[in-house]
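Write out this protein's structure.
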Amino acid sequence: MRITIFGAGAIGGYLAARLAAVEGVALSVVARGAHLAAIRDHGLRLVEPGGHRAVPVPATDTPAALGPQDCVILTVKAHSVAGALPAVAPLLGPGTAVVTMQNGIPWWYFHRSGGPHEGRRIAAVDPGGAISAALGPERAIGAVVYVAAEVVAPGVIEHPFGDRLVLGEPSGAATPRLAALAGVLAAAGIDTETAADIRTAIWVKLWGNLAFNPVSALTGATLAGICGDDDGRAVARAMMVEAAGVAEALGIRLPLDVDARIARAAAVGAHRTSMLQDLERGRPMEIDPIVTAVQELGRLAGRPTPGIDLVLNLLRCLARSRGCYAGGGTRP
C-alpha cells in the first residue's frame, strides 16, 4: 500500500515513525523547512516513555515527485487544509483515499449522512466549498485521534501517551479500503477501531474539545485546573450541554452523560490543551472546526447556543489580538 502522510508534525510524525517498519507499506511523508532537513539527516526521532528511536523515513517537500497514492493521511490542521490543496492534488489518483485527521467537525460531515442535510457544506470548515471540490468527499475516511504528541525540536516527536485511532466511512459501510487501512495501522502497533457511526465518534471527542480548548486558551488553565475549579467547570459544562442539544437535534446519541465526559477530561490531569499550546507559541488556533462549526450546526438545527456564542466571541477577540486567528467565521 502506497501511503503518504501529508504534514509530518506531531500526529503525522508519530504515525510515520510507527508505519515506517510495516511490511507491505511504501511510506512517504511531506514536510518542510528545518523539520524536513532534520528528518532527512537524522531520521524521524520518536521519544516515548520507554525510550527513543530514530526511524528512517522518506521525506519530501515536493509531493508531485511521489505520484498518486493508495492513501493520503492528511494531518495538517484544519485551517491549513485549503492552502495545502494544490500540493495534495498530485497525490490523488482515481482510487486514492484521503484520511482526515483534523480536530473538530470535518468538511465532509454531511456526505452520505442520509439525513435531511445530505451533502450540505459547512461554511466554517469549507468556506466556498474549495476543499470538497478539490478532494471529493467520496475519497474521505473519517478519523478520530486519541494520541498526545508534540514536536519538541525539528525532526523530534515526543509521544507521552495515547495510541488509539477510530476510523470510519462517512456512509458507515465496512469497505475493503477501510479494513485494509485499519489492518496496516494495527500492524504498526496502534490501537485501531473501525466505527459504523464515525460521526458519533467525532462528537464524543469534539464534545470535550469544544469546551476545554477555548476555556484553557482564555484562562491558561490545564484540564485538571478547569475541571477542579467551580467557575471553569461551570462554563465548560454549560457549553457541553448546549453542544449535546445540537448533536441530538442532528441525530447523534452521545454514549455518556456530560459529567462522565468531564470526568474523563479531569483524569488526563495537568494537560495543556492544543489550543492553549498554539496560543502560547503564537500559532493559529483551531477555532472554526472546533467551535464555530458547532455554532453553525446549532443554527442549522434550530438549537440556541448562547454560552458557546459568548465564549467564541471572546476567543476570537483574544486570537485576533495575538495574531492567532486563522479563520473567517461569521459572527452570530
